[in-house]
Amino acid sequence: MNNLQYWQKRQEKLLHSIYNKQETNTVKFLGEYKTSLEELYIVVDTLFRKFSTNGELSMTEIYKYDRYNKMINNIKDIVKSLGGKEKSFTKNALIDNYVNACIGSGKLLNKNGIEIDFSIIPQKQIERSINYPWSGADYSSRIWDNKKKLIKNLSETVTQGIVQGKSNTDIARDLKDRMNKGAYECRRLVRSETMHIVNSATYDTYKKAGLEKVELIVANDERLCDDCSSMEGIYNIEDAPMLPIHANCRCTLVPYIE
Question: Among 19, 65, 175, 235, which residue's CB has the most CB atoms within a 10 Å radius?
Answer without folding.
Answer: 175
